[in-house]
Specification:
The complex is a heterodimer of chains A (317) and B (356). With 317 residues, chain A is mostly helical. Chain A has helices spanning 2-27, 35-43, 46-59, 68-84, 90-115, 119-138, 148-154, 163-181, 183-193, 195-200, 205-231, 243-252, 264-284, 289-316, and strands at 143-144, 157-158, 161-162, 233-234. In chain A, the strands form two sheets. A two-stranded antiparallel sheet of chain A has the order 1-4. In chain A, strands 2-3 form a two-stranded antiparallel sheet. The longest helix of chain A is centred in the C-terminal third of the chain and has 28 residues, at 289-316. The chains are: A mainly alpha (317), B mainly alpha (356).
Chain lengths: 317, 356
Amino acid sequence: MRRLTIRGNDATLAALGVIGFGVLAATTHGNLLTGGTLRALFQFLAVPILVGLAQMVVLAVGQMNLSVGVLTGLCSMVMASLIVDAGLPAWLAVILGVMLGAAAGALNGILVVLTRINGFIVTLATLTIFSGLRFRVNGTGTYQNYSQRLISLGQGTVAGVPTVFVFALVVATLTSFFFRQTNAGRRLLATGGNPFAARLSGISNERSIVAAHMLSGLLAGTAAVVIVASSGSVNSSIGDDLLLPSFAAPIIAGVALSGGAVSVAGTCLAAFMVRLVDVAQAQYNINASWVDLIVGAVVFGAVLIEQLRQRAAAVAR
Amino acid sequence: MSATSLPEIEIPEPVDAERSPVPQLPIWANPRVGLLVLLAVLVAVFSLLRPAFLNVTLNLVPMQADLSVLVIVGLAQMVVLSLGHMNLAVGRIAAVSTFAMGLVCDRFGVSVWIGLLVGLAVGAAIGALSGFTIATTGVNSFIVTLALDFALLGLVSLLYSWFTGGVSFATQPAGLSGLQFGSFHDYCLAGACGPQVPLVVLLALVAAVAVAVVFARLRLGRELLMIGSSPRAARLSGIAVPRRVVQAHALSGLLAALAGFVLAANNGAFTADIGKSFLLPSFLSPVLGGTALAGGAVSIVGTVMGAGLTEVIQQGLNLLNFTVDELQIYIGVVLLAALSLDRARHVLADRRATRT
């Protein structure tokens, strides 16, 4: 039942996305469809998709990860530092940075399991710790020109589509595959859906929680790769504005906070919707503060519609 | 028959505000005792390392002013935690409310106290709105207040740019500087002057006492704790759950507005970045003090002590020339360590209880 409602939600989101895009394209006299604007739309969609997925995988087990944005920033800074300060080749620095994300995520999970403290509080604490560490990497300094090849790859295109967007789609597909096809993914959903039943059927809920947090950190690490590759310069404020979008995408997609269900496609579509609001702001030259206001309203409206739909479904039954 | 046996039925004690959720635990398992010891040790260590820590005018007075903000923010969060809810918008409610205060004082030239009343009303109204939304739609409080936080984040900067053209009010309302630098030490009666305590501490004290009265004496507080322990049982026993949810969130918004006002008084200005740093401390203080996120138990004394611990660590590390980033790392570590110790104490106490 749960799955079905989410799939219904995906179709609604896709329709809304197409309508929104169409309206925006029409009202800007096709400006949206010119190469540069269209490329930018998808170029800057990669990070919201990846941090949304990073939040989604912990929501799947009924947890939260407040440290996801700051962790993305920390990984970006470490990657840049490894290239500039340690002189490592870019590919190695990127891999190490992603591994750092996974390790930090695993730490979150282990702390949750070991101390039995609420995951909200644990990740709130690690959020402050990671933000301190993120600043320690280079203080107020900015890294730039770290690797021409990495940056040209990140700002380049594959068959006209921004490379980083393709990368985000590949990661999303892998995440979807993980939850649909692998035992490990199903175990996470089982833990999130009903921990008691999961334990009775021989699933270690502790292991699921650690795995979900590790995966979340890993995805935050991939978001860091996109930032380092596509922005060309990183400093210690990276990631500060990612926490709210990370919740917005899965919540708009209808992923329940109580766990047990995920929607990879919905999260991507919701990130696209939020991105459209951003683009509209730039196209119409509106005060940037409107974006937050509208996104807040969209998050709330989406949740409300989902709630009404469920109520209607319950009545129909 | 049933009428005569009625008085014999044992009435379970209501969850008391100041009592630990597990009453049979020994005294050292009480989180407040651990907090007190930790506070004493830290104060002793910092005073030994930097005697300036005990300097009244340079350190203790500003610390009390900061502490007042932390206490009120912690209480604002604690009030909704009692229900098992969260208020992620505490900081932004504070920002919008202080904007309202600044606007009223700026446009109408009224005293800062009238502004405060208007701001408190705005804060309570926003809180009531989010409470109403949660109660009527049944959407998780986390999502509602997250969306609200988003919306208010945009609204605050829009409001400031519309009405001030910048990020703060240029004029300082009458009476604000008196509150900024005022101390009970300035008030003397028959040769005896008050202690070196800033005036804003009084606001925090009033807030703490008022919240304590709500939870210890009033029906509102008792019913909030009952809803927090079991919303279903509360509803079945005839508690008007939606109304209480609205009231709790309104109270949380009111306290957030008060915290914003105290911070504005400490800074001496109504600015757009008020409340930016409220979210972490708002959870830190009550959680360190033993308030459960699941609801059903609160501790006002614990929240005040949790705020005290945060402030002592912040100021102590500051005096020891730790930088802001190191400070963040240590505060995160201390939070985890304190809560883990708390957990370990509970496990030990449980074991001892089962053995005897």
